[in-house]
Specification:
Elements: H1 2-27, H2 29-44, H3 52-59, H4 64-69, H5 76-81, E1 86-90, H6 91-99, H7 105-114, H8 119-129, E2 131-138, H9 147-153, E3 159-163, H10 168-177, E4 183-187, H11 193-202, E5 208-212, H12 218-227, E6 233-237, H13 243-252, E7 258-260, H14 269-278, E8 284-286
Parallel strand pairs: 1-2, 2-3, 3-4, 4-5, 5-6, 6-7, 7-8
Helix pairs in contact: 8-9, 9-10, 10-11, 11-12, 12-13, 13-14
Length: 300
């Protein structure tokens, strides 16, 4: 019993000294500082520790308006990162900025970054300051944002959709200045083989091409076959292409999943057969009004 009493007293002394040690530690300034430092480290362990490149990539998944109005106001670092984030501008966005009705929050933020929206300098500054990767322009829009302005200020451009006042010179200039292009949509009767050849030669990552109301020939198809092996989608509406060009293209662009050749009435069943033979992943075809293609009605 005496031994048990001695052990109990020893345990009480140890417990008491341990409690006193903890109280001293908790009340010490060193402990409080260590807790604050741990809290800061914990906070910084989240999104704030991401490199700027990763942060900008995250911004890409957020609507452009929200990026400009909300994210830019979170903190100084985010505000500085916003202009470096990849942003998609449609013509509707640009026109709304130009008109500035009601002095929207977006316009006010842009004015702080690049100045008041007045004419070509505003759009040049807009494209130069932001990492613009997608642009859509049609008709009279070229009067306020020309192809030359885009070519000079959008080296990261990945996708564009043009229609109306555009010709071969515009497309060639863009192709040479924007080698990262992957998705191209052109609706203009003044575009010829020179445009497609320039895109094929200068944009090795070209994946999707849509050209309507055109006069393209086999020259375009052969250029795509030689320089764009990764193409997955193509649409040529109303061109002058023939079977040899399509066959040459099919033999070299075997990753195709969708082909559309409406109104290309020079094509025959031989073109369709070649595409089906060389492109195992092909699941969509359109041969609208290609009367020489067997069963064209089933592919319209």
């Amino acid at each position: 019993s005496r031994a048990l009493e001695v052990n109990q007293r020893t345990h009480n002394v140890k417990h008491t000294s341990y409690s006193v040690h903890l109280k001293t530690l908790f009340s010490s300034q060193i402990y409080r500082r260590s807790i604050m430092a741990a809290s800061i480290d914990s906070a910084e362990a989240g999104i704030h520790r991401l490199p700027n490149e990763v942060l900008c990539h995250v911004f890409w998944f957020i609507d452009t308006k929200d990026v400009l109005t909300t994210l830019s106001g979170v903190c100084r670092r985010w505000r500085d990162a916003v202009p470096k984030a990849p942003i998609s501008f449609t013509m509707r966005d640009i026109l709304s900025m130009r008109q500035g009705k009601g002095k929207s929050k977006v316009l006010k933020i842009l004015e702080k970054i690049i100045g008041k929206p007045s004419g070509q300098p505003f759009f040049a500054n807009l494209l130069r300051r932001f990492r613009v990767e997608e642009i859509s322009l049609h008709g009279h829009h070229f009067e306020i944002c020309t192809a030359a302005t885009i070519a000079a200020n959008c080296p990261h451009l990945v996708a564009f959709s043009f229609g109306g006042k555009v010709d071969d010179d515009h497309i060639i200039q863009l192709a040479k200045s924007c080698p990262k292009l992957k998705y191209v949509d052109i609706s203009c009767p003044t575009v010829n083989d020179a445009s497609v050849v320039a895109l094929a030669q200068n944009c090795p990552g070209l994946r999707e091409l849509r050209v309507t109301y055109n006069y393209l020939t086999d020259v375009s198809m052969k250029a795509l076959g030689d320089h764009s092996p990764n193409m997955t989608h193509i649409e040529i509406h109303g061109g002058r292409i023939k079977d040899p060009g399509v066959i040459y293209f099919a033999e070299r662009c075997t990753k195709l999943v969708s082909v559309r050749f409406p109104e290309c009435d020079n094509l025959t069943t031989a073109a369709r057969t070649a595409l089906e033979k060389h492109c195992p992943n092909l699941y969509h075809q359109n041969w609208l009004n290609c009367y020489l293609v067997d069963g064209y009605e089933d592919y319209s």
